[in-house]
Amino acid sequence: LDNKLKKLFSYQRFAGNKDLQKVIDDTNASMDMLSLDDDDLTMASAGMGSVSVTKKCPFCRQKSSVIVENGGSYMCGFCGKQVDK
Amino acid sequence: MNTAKEINKEQVYKDYYEKVLRLCSFKISNTADAEDLTSKIFLKVYEKLDSFDQSKASLSTWIYTIANNSIIDYYRCFKYHVEIQEDLATDKEIDEDLLNDETLSELAAALKKLPERERMIVVLRYYEDKTLKDIAVTLGMSYANTKLLHQKALMTMKKYLQ
Predict the structure, then answer these.
(1) What mean pLDDT is predicted for residues B54-80?
(2) B22 CA: distance to closest CA in chain A (Å)
(3) Considering CB atoms only, which of A11, A16, A20 is closest to B108?
(4) pLDDT tens, B112-127?
(5) Mean pLDDT score across all residues of chain B
(6) pLDDT number for residue A84
(7) pLDDT average, residue stretch B134-152
(8) Does A42 contact chain B (CB < 8 Å)?
(9) How far is B35 from chain A (nearest CA, A)?
(10) Which of A60-69, B24-33, B99-108, B152-161 has the lowest average pLDDT?
(11) Which of A2, A7, A12 is facing B127, going by the closest CB pair?
């Protein structure tokens, strides 16, 4: 299987199958999120008074970009649950 | 021999140039060499187009095989010893049963069955050609855990990739 996967992924570089490319791109995007610290991802939304940060949800354990409200609560971008401060 | 005698060279170039260049650029780090080899591959494809037999392989697999073999030849031309990547060395023959769009979609479906961390390991190992040690560093995991999850991922994928 190891060899088969090497061949298939090499062929994917050439063939660019859309289904597989989407899985690869989504996986790479998840890895990018992992490699960034919360501080790196803090972005002030100029003029809107809100702050977008990456938070790890205590319910689903996934990281997602969320808008933190004044009280510090936010809605998980992954599972949609409300997380209170 | 070619059952589709009217294969248009211009169309072949249009359809496959980006694909061949993408493959070469990944396998060969030097951009100029990758572009040069891509041109040479198309010259070969044009030369052999008359002998292409559609009953043996699709045009896509046939061009991929020529490209792959040309990359192997490129490494062989080096004065200094350069280790040929394993997937290149074992992929000299046309493997129409394996190398087709359907199998790639099956692979996509199999990857979706994996937990996120295992999917990351598979993508890094086979698509990005990274070693398990490098993957462990990239994902901030121990080498032992990475190795274990890699094995687990392969066992899961085996069920879906027959």
Answers:
(1) 84
(2) 6
(3) A20
(4) 999 999 999 999 999 9
(5) 84
(6) 76
(7) 91
(8) no
(9) 15
(10) A60-69
(11) A12
Could you tell me the end-to-end alpha-carbon distance of chain A, in angstroms, rounded to an integer? 47
Matching residue, tokens 């085996």: B158
pTM recorded for the entire structure: 0.65
φ/ψ region of B129 (left if φ > 0, alpha if ψ in -120 to 50, else beta) reads left
**Distance in angstroms (rounded) separating the CA atoms of residues A78 and A33:** 13
Q: How many CB atoms lie within 10 A of CB A73?
A: 12
Write out the two tokens for A12.
Answer: 């994917």
Report whether B138 contacts B124 (CB < 8 A).
yes
Angle, to 10 degrees, between the axis of helix B143-160 and the axis of helix A2-15? 80
Give the integer Cα–Cα distance in Å for A62 and A43: 19
Q: CA distances (Å), B71 to each of B29, B84, B130, in order?
A: 12, 9, 19
Beta bridge partners of A51: A44, A68
More confident residue, A19 or B96: A19
